[in-house]
Amino acid sequence: MRDNAEAAQQGACTLVRYCGEIVSTPAGPNTGAGFVKNFPPHMLVQFGGYLGGGQSHQEIWSCNIRVATFGTIDTNSPQDATVQDQENFASALSTTLQTWFATPEASITDQAKLTFLKVNAIGPLGEYRSKTTTTLRDFSPVAGFFGVGQYTPYQAAAVVTLHSDVLRGLGSKGRIYLPCPASTYNVDGRWARTVEVANSIDPVLEAMNRYNGDCTSRVAIVSPGSPITGEGGIARLVTGLSVGDVVDTQRRRRNALVENRQRRVVSQPVL
Asked: Where would you tag: which of 17, 26, 125, 219 has the fewest CB atoms within 10 A of its CB?
């Protein structure tokens, strides 16, 4: 994926660019109440785990990345993935994913554990193509690299934005929220590990792009279309990523973490 890639510091984020982009646009524009989703062929890749010191799952997290699927001979022609593709894709990605999560460059603390990878081929309406089989890989918990002294609240997340070749509109960008970023900041309060994260996640995306089974795969921003504009579903290949230097809040797959509150009675003066 990273042919002639370049990484550069640009303002408030670290940007990595990639060469090569293909757009898949199924027909079927429709609007208003009659809108029908029309996802192009792709697989949904989800990985995640829990936050905290044990399997009590004080909090959970996950990241979703969509991978457009194409033919093996005509690699520009969209093609549905099979259950066997799901299985083979998960097997090919598992080791790379676990290795990346535990590296210092991923910049995740050991508060976060990676425990699963799930892969499913997605149909045009956004449903799993197989009604009976989901591909799941359970891992022995893999901890982030950084320990005490680098901890952040469970709510904190580092944001990785995936970019296509268009700046706005359908298929322009997607985001994943990496859990518990290491607490390393510059003097201006901005997160200091954007370069490390941007570089480290590249092998994971490359592994997703290398699959070649009954179909081939490319990491993509996938949309079912728009009921407002009538545009059909679209998959735009990811051509770059950026990592922001402002720590965000975890927005994916959370439990409602129960707050423990300290309460005090406020006394009233006697009048």
From this structure: 125
